[in-house]
């Protein structure tokens, strides 16, 4: 199994999109730093939107998680699951002494490890960029916090934030794997994946409008049925220090939503991928 995982890891790195994604991280962070440098001129220093050297890694992740990381995940998984099957490459691997189930999990783990590497590089590059472009501050103002935090606590907050962001990418990737396993072409997989992203982005807007216009008074936590909404504001909500938000138990709710997406779509993808007639 380790040999198969190593093989899938190498196959991913042979793709230009993997190298280009990794190499582009410093450029993405530089562009993000430039944006926040200008944004700082429009917000007060006491605002959670104000960027400092210490909170820049989190601000940079907030800015790029939904677009950059989701799209990279979609493209990599489409190439790994859909394109390789349609081109016949997977049939060559199946000639070896590996089952389709082993191949599925090797591909899944290779992708998860690659995304973990991307997150690590992104974190290290944003840390360096933060101290180059932004002023340092001994206290940080955070979203959904009722008090400022010291630099040491900010380090822990940043690590937790990146860990949760990675978990949302794993959840989103589970959906993309399900789509990729079922799709008949790479174009269809990309199109359906982008369609899911757009629906996920649009759901909170429709939810808020229905609640306001129709007076449904649905619980606010239902907004986080959307994976992109969890990525956009849900992570900060889960890490909130305010008693009002804590009383809603957002962490448990969103963890259940993520787990549901992962279990349902991964199980469906595994079932489709390992069907005996798929390799005939």
Total helical elements: 10
Question: Domains counted in the coordinates: how many?
Answer: 1
| Main structural class | mainly alpha
Overall, the morphology is globular
The span between the termini is: 23 Å
Round the mean pLDDT to the nearest integer and report it.
88
Number of strand elements:
2
Which sheet architecture does the biggest sheet show?
A: 2 strands, antiparallel
Strand share of the residues? under 5%
Level of helix content?
Answer: over 70%
* N-to-C SSE string, H for helix and E for strand: HHHHHEEHHHHH
Low-confidence stretches: none
Radius of gyration: 20 Å
Strand order of the largest sheet: 1-2
Transmembrane segments: 17-36, 56-82, 103-134, 161-181, 188-206, 251-273
Keywords: Membrane, Transmembrane, Transmembrane helix
GO molecular function, one term: ABC-type transporter activity
Protein name: ABC transporter permease
Can you walk through the features of this model?
The chain is an all-alpha fold and 280 residues long. The chain is built from ten helices and two strands; from the N terminus they run H-H-H-H-H-E-E-H-H-H-H-H. Strands 1-2 form a two-stranded antiparallel ribbon. Helix 3 runs antiparallel to helix 5 (100-133), helix 5 packs antiparallel against helix 6 (151-182) and helix 6 (151-182) runs antiparallel to helix 8. The protein is globular. The model has no long low-confidence stretch (mean pLDDT 88).
């Amino acid at each position: 199994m380790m040999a198969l995982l190593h093989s899938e890891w190498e196959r991913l790195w042979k793709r230009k999109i993997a190298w280009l994604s990794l190499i582009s991280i410093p450029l993405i962070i530089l562009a993000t730093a430039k944006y926040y440098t200008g944004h700082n001129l429009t917000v007060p220093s006491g605002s959670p939107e104000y960027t400092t050297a210490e909170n820049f890694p989190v601000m940079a992740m907030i800015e790029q998680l939904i677009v950059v990381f989701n799209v990279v995940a979609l493209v990599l998984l489409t190439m790994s699951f859909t394109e390789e099957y349609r081109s016949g490459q997977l049939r060559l691997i199946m000639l070896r002494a590996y089952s389709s189930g082993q191949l599925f999990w090797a591909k899944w783990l290779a992708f998860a490890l690659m995304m973990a590497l991307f997150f690590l590089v992104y974190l290290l590059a944003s840390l360096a960029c933060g101290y180059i472009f932004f002023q340092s501050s001994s206290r940080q103002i955070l979203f959904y916090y009722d008090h400022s935090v010291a630099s040491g606590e900010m380090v822990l907050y940043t690590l937790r934030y990146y860990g949760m962001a990675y978990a949302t990418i794993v959840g989103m990737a589970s959906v993309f794997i399900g789509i990729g396993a079922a799709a008949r072409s790479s174009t269809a997989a990309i199109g359906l994946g982008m369609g899911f992203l757009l629906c996920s982005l649009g759901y909170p807007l429709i939810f808020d409008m229905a609640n306001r216009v129709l007076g449904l008074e649905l619980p606010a936590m239902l907004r986080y049925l959307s994976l992109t909404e969890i990525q956009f504001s849900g992570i900060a909500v889960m890490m909130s220090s305010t008693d009002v938000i804590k009383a809603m138990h957002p962490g448990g709710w969103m963890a259940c939503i993520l787990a549901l997406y992962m279990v349902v779509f991964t199980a469906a993808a595994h079932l489709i991928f390992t069907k005996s007639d798929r390799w005939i």
